[in-house]
Design goal:
Blueprint lengths: L4 H26 L22 H6 L1 E7 H6 L19 H12 L7 E5 L6 E5 L1 H9 L4 E7 L6 H4 L4 E2 L1
Helix pairs in contact: 1-4, 4-5
Amino acid sequence: MPNIDNPLEARARAIEAGKPIDELVKTYKENTPLVLPLWDETKRSIEFNNINSSIVEAGIDIYTAPFTDLWNGIYQPDIYDKETLWECVHDERKIAKVIKAWSCRIPLSPIFLVKHGLCSKGVVADGKHRLTVARYMGCESIPFMVSSSSSDWLEIAIPSAKKL
């Protein structure tokens, strides 16, 4: 007969471990601090994103663009608008972790864009919460990553993008 105590103990530990971030969510929802988005624009930052290893091995390039140009070049940007910061479309814990990192002056890796299959727009494949917090904070320019082998769509979607 399986031991039911182990899964219950693991669940209790997980709940306990989540309490500090839940407190942070509550605090930030009541009074969201304004923080300066800080970005790690080094090639090393690529390893901190949730990008398929075969894409990383094929090559990733980092670009930067004015935030408004990036905003106009992504598919369905309203999902990431500042009014959605604490809405159910986002994971509150991830939002709080981004705010906490930037309030502690910890730079985060750029967002990762891929080309939308049907139009010349970017889709946020990784970094949705970073993008939403950056929008909320009024970020003026933003770095982003794209696959080296498929960056030709950028000329149309975000013509002001500059490779770093």
